Amino acid sequence: MTTRIVELRRGILKKNDELAAELRKRYEAAGALVLNLVSSPGTGKTEFLQRTLTGLRERGKRAAALVGDLETDNDARRLASSGAPVRQINTHGICHLDAEMIGKHLEGWEGVELDQLDYLFIENVGNLVCPSSYDLGEKIRVALLSVTEGEDKPLKYPTLFNSADAAVITKMDLAEPCGFDRALALKNINEIRPGIRIFETSAKTGAGMEAWLEYLIKARG
Amino acid sequence: MTTRIVELRRGILKKNDELAAELRKRYEAAGALVLNLVSSPGTGKTEFLQRTLTGLRERGKRAAALVGDLETDNDARRLASSGAPVRQINTHGICHLDAEMIGKHLEGWEGVELDQLDYLFIENVGNLVCPSSYDLGEKIRVALLSVTEGEDKPLKYPTLFNSADAAVITKMDLAEPCGFDRALALKNINEIRPGIRIFETSAKTGAGMEAWLEYLIKARG
User: Fold this and answer.
1) Which terminal residue of chain B, N or C, has fewer Cβ atoms less than 10 Å from its own Cβ?
2) CA distances from B202 to A176, B36, B218 (A)
3) Residue A9 above 90 pLDDT?
4) For residues B108 and A164, what is the distance between their CA atoms, to the nearest angstrom?
5) Rounded distance, CA B201 to CA A200, Å?
């Protein structure tokens, strides 16, 4: 059965890669920097993204977000408080976003034109495994990990960390009560993806957000 | 593309259901109570299971565990400290355990015969989505959720909570620093799965473990 799954997946992924390549060309032509945020459920992607959207707005940048969830539009509603345009994608049981879903939701998005944006953020479905295999045409893939999840996650979910362009550690304000071993976490991330840029953040206190926003502004050029 | 995935999944799941039905008969004939533990990465399944295995051993019960991870045998090594037989299943990129993997790993498991066990625990791959669809022949499916993950997870990942027989809230010792809203979490779990048995636990302090062990002993009969 496993062999069959692998074969089926290969065909699906090939089609996804083709669609993602088209999206990548569109993003580049429009001059929008696109980021794909991937993590476990509960890592704090939404709060981190909310702070990011607000911070970019304060710096005069135009940013929007597509938000994936199996069900509910909770995240879109939370993110909309940043003032940025946000559109929810409900996957209804599918465990990841794919390039086709992104393409569809870029169409008919009221008030949003890709070439009017500096940044487009895609908040993926909470899942450390499946989203890793689906290219969404993004320029920067961001792997997020909270201090509450344990330092070994990069080793246990290498595909995501290995394909990421930046890593964000969230909930640093909880590092002490969780007994978070910072050195070990950094070592494990570097073991899977040597030299990757790592941001240590807390959306609660705002720690680390400045460095992250500077990185975004530099990356957009 | 989404339609094609759904069709492909249907065939795979049908085959899995057939294998799971065979496993279920084997477990029942052997008199082993089988539980399937599902949660996000980092919810604390392994520490919770370690305490559970130790507690059952102290009560003279025979328990063993199969542990799924994409990579590493960290969890099997941690669990082995309980003194229970533990076998690691590495899925190498597959985002869930399936019935075929379980069947294979029950064969040739040194020193373990199903009919010598009171309990077999299956710790699934850390993923709130995909494992929900794969029956492993278990009698009891346990959905775990940590206080650090946010109270809305049952609403956002309804398939797991809707198919679970028991829910375990972990890391209750972190409830205060996380600002965990207990009433809201209980309400959301009950909204998806009315009347489900809920255990509020901390593997760190041992809180709630007594009630959980009593439940296990009663369920085994």
Assistant:
1) C
2) 17, 19, 21
3) no
4) 38
5) 29
Q: Which of B100, B159, B174 is closest, CB to CB, to A177?
A: B174
What is the separation of C-alpha B199 from the centre of its chain, rounded to a whole number of angstroms? 14
Check CB contact of B100 with chain A, cutoff 8 Å: yes
Q: Residue B43: what are its φ and ψ, rounded to 5°?
A: -75, -25
Q: Does B77 touch chain A (CB under 8 A)?
A: no
Residue of A19, A6, A87 lying closest to B1 (CA atoms): A19
- In degrees and rounded to multiples of 5, residue A121 shows phi and psi of -100, 135
Q: How far apart are CA A162 and CA B159, in angstroms?
A: 29
Q: State pLDDT tens for residues B144-197.
A: 999 999 999 999 999 999 999 999 999 999 999 999 999 999 999 999 999 999
Is the CB of A127 inside 8 Å of chain B's CB atoms?
yes
| Residue where the block lists tokens 């809230």 | B169
Q: Which amino acid is at B109?
A: W
The tens digit of pLDDT for each residue in B57-96 reads 999 999 999 999 999 999 999 999 999 999 999 999 899 9
Nearest to B97 by CA among B140, B65, B126: B126
For residues B55 and B65, give the distance between their C-alpha atoms in angstroms, rounded to a whole number: 14
Find the distance separating the first CA and the last CA of chain A, reported in whole Å. Answer: 47
Residues A57-78 as b or e (16 or more Cβ within 10 Å = b): eeeebebbbbbbbbeeebbbeb
pLDDT in tens, A66-106: 999 999 999 999 999 999 999 999 999 899 999 999 999 99
CB nearest A42 (choices: B16, B125, B148): B148
Q: Which pLDDT value is given to residue A116?
A: 97
Contacts A15 to B, Cβ<8 Å: 1
Chain B residues inside the 8 Å CB shell of A95: 95, 127, 129-130
Could you tell me the residue range of the domain that residue B51 belongs to? 2-220
Which tokens go with B127? 């993923």
- CATH code of A184's domain: 3.40.50.300
Rounded distance between C-alpha atoms, residue A140 and residue A168, angstroms:
12
B88: helix, coil or strand? strand
> Both tokens of residue B134?
């794969």
Element (H, E) at A58: helix A45-58
> How many domains does chain A divide into?
1
